């Protein structure tokens, strides 16, 4: 999936204008990079178009441990949107990631996240 298709898909799924979708994508990927191990963030980035790789540069080799509420809060602050908009943005970005990368890679990403992330993107157990 190329960058423009990714952006258009997130814009549609989050029901936000494109100028809000771009910061939501960036904020979600930056927060995901904090939540994943560096190796997993690198693996995910390797399957994405260039503009989506940079936000996935993990700040530390280890994953930070925090849940969905903290994830949403960080995305909300980074993107400058309400928590409700952030939640919809995260849902849209994660479901678009599911479509953009291999199923095995998406499963690896989800395996590092708490179960409530699966419910957010409706990933079957």
Structure at a glance:
This protein is mostly helical and 125 residues long. The protein contains 8 helices and no strands. The protein has a single domain, classed as Uncharacterized conserved protein DUF2267 (Globin-like), CATH 1.10.490.110.
Mean pLDDT: 94
Order of helices and strands: HHHHHHHH
Second rung of CATH, namely the architecture:
Orthogonal Bundle
Biggest sheet features: none
Q: What's the shape?
A: globular
The CATH class, by name, is Mainly Alpha
The CATH superfamily label reads: Uncharacterized conserved protein DUF2267
What's the β-strand tally?
A: 0
- CA distance, first residue to last residue: 25 Å
Portion of residues in beta strands equals under 5%
Q: What is the count of helical runs?
A: 8
- Kindly name the structural category: mainly alpha
CATH topology-level fold name? Globin-like
Give the C-alpha Rg: 13 Å
Notes on the protein architecture:
This protein has 125 residues and is mostly helical. The protein has one domain: Globin-like, CATH 1.10.490. 71% of the residues lie in helices and 0% in strands. α2 crosses α5 and α3 packs antiparallel against α7. The radius of gyration is 13 Å and the shape is globular. The model has no long low-confidence stretch (mean pLDDT 94).
